[in-house]
User: Fold this.
Amino acid sequence: MLQTLTAGLPQLGLTFSEDTCRRLCAFGEAVVRQNEVMNLTAITAPDQVAKLHLLDSLSVLKTVDLAEKRLIDVGCGAGFPGVPVKIGCPEVKLTLLDSLGKRMAWLEQILPELGVEAECVTARAEEFVTKRREQYDFATSRAVARLNILLELTAPFVKVGGAVLAMKGAAANQELDEAAGAIGKLGLKLEKVEQFPVDGTDHAVIVLRKVRPTPPQYPRAFAKIKKSPL
Assistant:
């Protein structure tokens, strides 16, 4: 895992100390171990964990400057991309949000052991936003939902001037077209799409800048979001 991670960092234009690389791998290995008793990931081979979890997550750091910024990882699952981002940029102020209590309890236990400081919140995004509306510089998410659904769950957390960082694969441009209506309604504007090679395929970070407040009627209840995306 360490060898694959170290070999892949130059392709992202990132440089980390040996200690940071070892801490990234320690988290990857912890996920694989916990996966034996809890469904966290289908990716368990060490080299694939390095490529598809660690390197993929770290691409966020090449897209925006997160130092001293507030970041919320919505639907963080096993902690991707938030935890690798925090290890790579300790100055970021990280909130991990997921609705599955067992996952969050595990993260609350393992992160202090790895020296990773993060707020872990067990809640649904559309409910927790009532407490943190437009309080974050950035919201990110990976493998949670199609973009037109994802943006309604993430944009309300971001303050004007901040951005949603949506992590997508080969269908990024297709999902962008699909989400054109949502982008405008939620107060966002497409800034850029950064493409990164990960394991031979392009992965993308879509940066959507918050240019005006998200109207108060958003987010709707999740059942409505899913039934009729913006």
Notes: The radius of gyration is 17 Å.
